[in-house]
Amino acid sequence: MGKINSKVTDSVNFFKGNKPSDLTAKFGSPLYVYNESILRERCRELKNLVDYKNFIVNYSAKANSNLAFLEIVNEEGLYVDAMSMGEIYVELKAGFKPEQIFFISNNISEEEMKFAIERNITLSVDSLSQLERYGMLNPGGKVAARFNSGVGAGHSEKVITGGKKTKFAINPEYIPEFKEILKKYDLKLMGINNHIGSLFMEADKYIEGVKATLEIAKQFDDLDFVDFGGGIGIPYEKLNDQPRFDLEDLSRQLGEVIDGFVKEYGKEITFKIEPGRYISAECCVLLGTVHAIKHNNVHKFVGTDIGFNVLQRPVMYDSHHDIEVYNDADDTEPVTVVGNICESGDILAKDRVLPVVSIGDTIGLLDAGAYGYSMASNYNNRLRPAEVLIRENGEAVLIREADELEDLTRHMISLKN
Ligand SMILES: *Cc1c(COP(=O)(O)O)cnc(C)c1O
Fold it and tell me: Among 147, 199, 225, 390, who pairs with 191 as Cys (CB 3.0-4.6 Å)?
């Protein structure tokens, strides 16, 4: 493997002796590769975040909902969030018990509500009208609700979920009407939740959201839990030595706020957090292959098989992923790395300085485990890639097969015959 060209993955022994090009030769390219040891480490870091007995980490499965991946998260003793029936379905298969699943719903149908009620899965509503619907379907039942703490943060407008501009949650000014509906249907409010947004690198905004959520919590007697949401960021610019999120700072501040609240509230309620990205991003490298190199006007383009149907983040959010080139090149040059989708926006990295790339080289997009495969699609009728897990002993095992051509028409109905 290269000298400087696999600096980040070498530093964490990511591939455990497997050569990236051997992996793509065996399992196909592009390829999502996960490292089990790193996944387990991230789970443990957050599970031990605060020293309080009723503290639960709900992994937010929308970041990555591969079955084997969820089985590992389950073994590590985390619980899970769900955003849909489909996530609940996979989570139950992965071994989570209904009481370990928290369904954070947004504008769901009666069918979806019934699905959760029938399985005894705690559901959080995020509007008065959805509370009313829940009350009609399950009078006398238990429910949770998402409130807008007024605090928002995140890496893109698209993922800021608290504050004035968001479609999410119930504004605290409606608490009197909310209580009326609870009473009308004899519902018990088990807990409240908040989520300010995705990808912030400092504890302060999060703690601001925590405090605002606890102020809302004080307006309800006898809650069982308060859930502070996810959004904890990871350093995507490792090649530029971007520092990690300071978990110790978060731990200390969160611990203090929890202690203060418990004393005032007079009950040792459960506190939850809902990280998705922090758990899943860094245990994954997305491998791809260089198929073409060309000069168009001012840019040198490196054409790969990683289109935005495989990894949507750079196009959708303008996100940065570090890139490693698994060759021995000593020189570097600025290139624009693109995929194979028929749209000019299909760009993975613009004017990025990389080791000089040749056709046939294997490249790796780092930190691709969150919102990577889970947002992949068949756009351009391209096949979604396989997923492979490098076990703790170094063995690489398949955890999802790549799509095959027949999969593309599996649910299509021909007019002929
Ligand atoms: C997406 C989401 C999360 C997880 O966000 P991350 O940034 O991946 O930690 C947590 N809670 C809710 C309600 C979400 O929608």
Answer: 225
205 lines ligand 1 (CB under 6 A): no
For the chain, the domain total comes to 2
Tens-binned pLDDT, residue by residue, of the chain (417 aa): 445 589 999 999 999 999 999 999 999 999 999 999 999 999 999 999 999 999 999 999 999 999 999 999 999 999 999 999 999 999 999 999 999 999 999 999 999 999 999 999 999 999 999 999 999 999 999 999 999 988 888 888 888 888 888 889 999 999 999 999 999 999 999 999 999 999 999 999 999 999 999 999 999 999 999 999 999 999 999 999 999 999 999 999 999 999 999 999 999 999 999 999 999 999 999 999 999 999 988 889 999 999 999 999 999 999 999 999 999 999 999 999 999 999 989 999 999 999 999 999 999 999 999 999 999 999 999 999 999 999 999 999 999 999 999 999 999 999 997
For the beta carbon of residue 119, count every other beta carbon within 10 angstroms.
Answer: 14
**Last residue within a domain, chosen from 279, 295, 315:** 279
**Residue 275, ligand 1, Cβ within 6 A:** yes
Distance 126 CA to ligand 1 centre (A): 15
- Residue 303 included in any domain: yes
Rounded to the nearest angstrom, the distance between the alpha carbon of 195 and the centre of ligand 1 is: 7
Q: What is the pTM of this model?
A: 0.96
The verdict on the CB of residue 198 being under 6 Å from ligand 1 is yes
Centre of ligand 1 to C-alpha 413, Å, is 36
Q: Which domain holds residue 200?
A: 36-279
Is residue 62 within 6 Å of ligand 1 at its C-beta? yes
Catalytic annotation present for 283:
no
Contact call for residues 145 and 134 (beta carbons, < 8 A): no
- Do 249 and 299 lie in one domain? The reply is no
Same domain, 156 and 172: yes
- CATH number of the domain where residue 51 is located: 3.20.20.10
Q: Measured over all CA atoms, what is the biggest interatomic distance in the chain, rounded to whole angstroms?
A: 72
Q: Name, in order, each residue with C-beta under 8 angstroms of 235's C-beta and a sequence gap of 6 or more.
A: 201, 242, 243, 244, 245
For residue 416, is it within any domain?
A: no
